[in-house]
């Protein structure tokens, strides 16, 4: 005997194998009761494999392109390799937790394993919502030993270290890399916000850059570079620049005609992995492990990553006593308290104090580095670091009140320095390269960046 079963398309299927008409009718009554309670499960739904369900799941997914690319990578490389051929109704929570334990034992970071299991849980929650399975089998563990995770401190840099790393990056790949690093450290902007920054959003006469909430960030999705919104809704903001950085960016922009502020020496958009390999890692870590590098550079801030410049900026603001609200506004962080978020504003005098503090850090760091000797170089054993000189930027202007908060600026201030035409030869931003050549008794005398 068979019992009729309602299908999602409005028709009916059957369940066979009943030994009597009464048994079939009882099953039909049970199904109808489950339907009335909203507890009916499609008997064929649980037969779908996780790989089959992932196709439907991705079709309905509505997230940013970068997020979807990350999800696809994790599902393809981790989840489907283990669970792709498993039926939805054959996945058990215990088996998933055992698998997660094995991933950790194989050397995967705890954060990565947590992300993978949360992603798989999301897929199964949606399967349960579609009544393919009764419940999500992945539930938090309430027993077992407590994992004491070792918290790894983020590496941040002092202003002197930032200038040292930037100077070495300049001789490795070009001045543009140093300007990018310095801008990151003195604005707190993210990688994508700076690599996506365009001339039209760089208002140097006003002393600001604008992080557009719609097209400010450069994203790399499946190997393609495209402009899109920054990380969060709060990331769209206006960042006030200290005076030295206005001069630095003005000189930098005069060196090329690309619509993006930061590009390679060949005028190409920046890719994070290439920049890390060619500039960030050797400039911060040194290249003592290489036998005959083109240029010998020394460790200054080992382990520092590009995001570490943003972390450094935050650390400086805290040390300078800048209020939390002003920090959040500048960094594009969300203010947790909703009322405080609505009514919080940065007073002009706070903005001026913030800019003064950043300018002071620059001049102090520049003075320290340009008067250093090998015996006091703070570069973890480095024997030499280049002097970084920027004309007209070594001393702060006597009056910084010309750079008030963008929200209260009545009118753009007069240009503090004349625009340097790109038609005229420009002096190098960096003089005396920040590294020692690998050739004996020879020191590079000019910048040679690729």
UniProtKB/TrEMBL annotation:
Compositionally biased, Low complexity: which spans? 389-406
Composition bias, kind Polar residues: at what positions? 435-450
- Tell me the Pfam families matching this sequence: Phage_integrase
The Tyr recombinase domain sits at: 152-356
PANTHER family (alphabetical): PHAGE INTEGRASE-RELATED (PTHR30349), PROPHAGE INTEGRASE INTD-RELATED (PTHR30349:SF64)
According to its UniProt record, which protein family does this protein belong to?
Belongs to the 'phage' integrase family.
Instruction: Supply the name of the protein.
Output: Integrase
Please tell me the species this chain comes from.
Answer: Actinophytocola oryzae
């Amino acid at each position: 005997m068979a019992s009729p079963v309602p299908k999602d398309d409005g028709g009916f299927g059957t369940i066979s194998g009943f030994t009597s008409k009464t048994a079939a009718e009882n099953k039909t009554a049970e199904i109808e009761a489950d339907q009335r309670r909203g507890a009916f499960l499609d008997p064929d739904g649980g037969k779908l494999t996780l790989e089959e369900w992932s196709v439907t799941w991705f079709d309905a997914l509505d997230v940013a392109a970068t997020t979807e690319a990350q999800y696809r990578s994790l599902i393809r490389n981790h989840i489907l390799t283990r669970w792709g051929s498993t039926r939805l109704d054959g996945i058990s929570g215990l088996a998933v937790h055992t698998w997660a334990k094995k991933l950790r034992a194989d050397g995967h970071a705890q954060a990565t394993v947590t992300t993978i299991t949360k992603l798989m849980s999301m897929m199964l929650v949606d399967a349960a919502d579609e009544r393919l399975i009764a419940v999500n089998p992945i539930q938090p563990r309430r027993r077992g030993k407590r994992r004491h995770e070792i918290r790894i401190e983020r590496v941040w840099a002092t202003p002197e270290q930032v200038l040292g790393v930037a100077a070495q990056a300049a001789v490795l790949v070009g001045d543009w890399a140093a300007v990018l690093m310095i801008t990151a450290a003195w604005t707190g902007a993210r990688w994508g916000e700076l690599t996506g920054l365009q001339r039209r959003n760089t208002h140097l006469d006003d002393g600001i850059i604008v992080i557009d909430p719609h097209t400010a960030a450069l994203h790399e999705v499946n190997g393609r570079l495209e402009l899109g919104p920054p990380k969060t809704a709060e990331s769209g903001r206006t960042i006030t620049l200290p005076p030295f950085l206005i001069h630095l960016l003005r000189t930098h922009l005069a060196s090329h005609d690309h619509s993006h502020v930061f590009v390679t020496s060949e005028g190409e958009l920046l890719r994070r992995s290439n920049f890390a390999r060619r500039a960030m890692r050797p400039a911060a870590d040194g290249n003592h492990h290489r036998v005959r590098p083109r240029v010998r550079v020394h460790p200054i801030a080992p382990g520092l990553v590009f995001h570490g410049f943003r972390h450094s900026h935050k650390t400086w603001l805290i040390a300078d006593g800048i209020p939390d609200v002003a920090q959040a506004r500048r960094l594009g962080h969300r203010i947790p308290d909703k009322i405080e978020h609505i009514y919080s504003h940065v007073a002009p005098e706070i903005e001026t104090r913030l800019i003064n503090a950043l300018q002071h850090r620059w001049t102090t760091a520049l003075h320290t580095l340009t008067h250093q000797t090998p015996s006091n170089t703070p570069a973890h054993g480095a024997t030499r670091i280049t002097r970084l000189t920027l004309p007209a930027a070594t001393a702060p202007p006597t009056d910084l009140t010309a750079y008030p908060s963008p929200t209260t600026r009545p009118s753009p201030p007069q240009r503090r320095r004349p625009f340097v035409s790109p038609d005229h030869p420009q002096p190098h931003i960096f003089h005396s390269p920040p590294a020692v050549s690998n050739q004996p008794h020879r020191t590079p005398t000019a910048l040679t960046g690729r």
